[in-house]
């Protein structure tokens, strides 16, 4: 699916109230991992719901995800006797989200009142939301009691395992959860009477007396459809990953579009600004390494897992600069380090290098891994008989992609340094201890190690010496986005706040189209979708309670 299949963007200036094509209780804009739960919760509360999705099909970015969802103090944890108190949870998220303000003795752990209130709302509502979805057969799950948080070794994480749920029916590896989840949620929406309309791009709000009364959308065929909402409009349209201007203006790093749905163009940023919305966390994103040559492709899946034991990542000088197995959000930061002396990003592109052993035993088509099995798309892979030949081919591939990188090239000493780097890594691998970057020394690194050849007596399964004979393989890697996490600030019930912190009547937001209180942090696997489901639940409740004034009257 490309943006050629959706209506072009029009002016976001609000329309005034007039006759409607459709009238309903609740309008949900967006049909992915945020919009579908919001629509279902609203429907189960007894509301008529119209869901408008810009793309020709439902799913959005969530359909491509593993769809882990991180649920603190969930029901299976409680059944197992695993304690997950709010005070402990708050300290963990605060320690990572705002490390320079973290205060373990403060009632808010150093967070602002808004951040702390969002953490409280997430903690209180994530489990009830997950259980309601499961009870209704809309998102049944299995508990993953042994999956650790991404920072489980921190002293502040008092419940380091057990918060992850995945869709029931997903593979044992949990990699296809998004397809399973979207299929379940979509089926439930059809079963329970949500009026789903794909191919409808919402262009603007309909405003009546200062209250959001509905939306205007256009179809790919150019038809304008006006949908009025008696209770409210909930936006769940994703971030601005695929809007070049917004990405460049706000993120502050040269992040590539990544694997968000190509329809994630920041629509709600533009639409909500017409109501004086207050914006927050526009400089933050959920990040992930991505293959340079596939960045921006609709089918791209980020590198959640860098597979292979006889494998390394090197910079333009042929040297390792980071732990290849660290969580993807943290790995992505490596690409954006600025060299003030040279005036460039020396790690903008890293080169993943592996040998035949890893090709034979670590190939997989899951989690965006670059070592892929025969018969799958390997257009990103460079192969050669020797390291010198590999260097030549890497230079050629970089030259072919110069327009994407500002002419990024290998340094003159790459060919000289690469064998030395491999020798140093091989020494660490033989001992099972990475003295440079501590590869394989945390629990989550072992989870994301990917398939490797089993070796008897090995203490560190993330490392094995790279062969001194070819063939060798390589791929170009850069820093990309899963999606952005900035937009209008909302209150804990999803009500969009104006510049004075006052809710805009009738306007709500959920998911990556609104500001996330997580700040810079990626707390754990599923720390995107867990809060999304919780706030979908809360927003649905708030819009259900919203007053529905007669058209043409000022809201009270």
From TrEMBL:
<keyword id="KW-0274">FAD</keyword>
<dbReference type="Pfam" id="PF00890">
    <property type="entry name" value="FAD_binding_2"/>
</dbReference>
<keyword id="KW-0560">Oxidoreductase</keyword>
<protein>
    <submittedName>
        <fullName>FAD-dependent oxidoreductase</fullName>
    </submittedName>
</protein>
<dbReference type="InterPro" id="IPR050315">
    <property type="entry name" value="FAD-oxidoreductase_2"/>
</dbReference>
<dbReference type="InterPro" id="IPR027477">
    <property type="entry name" value="Succ_DH/fumarate_Rdtase_cat_sf"/>
</dbReference>
<keyword id="KW-0285">Flavoprotein</keyword>
<dbReference type="GO" id="GO:0033765">
    <property type="term" value="F:steroid dehydrogenase activity, acting on the CH-CH group of donors"/>
</dbReference>
<feature type="domain" description="FAD-dependent oxidoreductase 2 FAD-binding">
    <location>
        <begin position="25"/>
        <end position="529"/>
    </location>
</feature>
<dbReference type="GO" id="GO:0008202">
    <property type="term" value="P:steroid metabolic process"/>
</dbReference>
<dbReference type="InterPro" id="IPR003953">
    <property type="entry name" value="FAD-dep_OxRdtase_2_FAD-bd"/>
</dbReference>
<dbReference type="InterPro" id="IPR036188">
    <property type="entry name" value="FAD/NAD-bd_sf"/>
</dbReference>
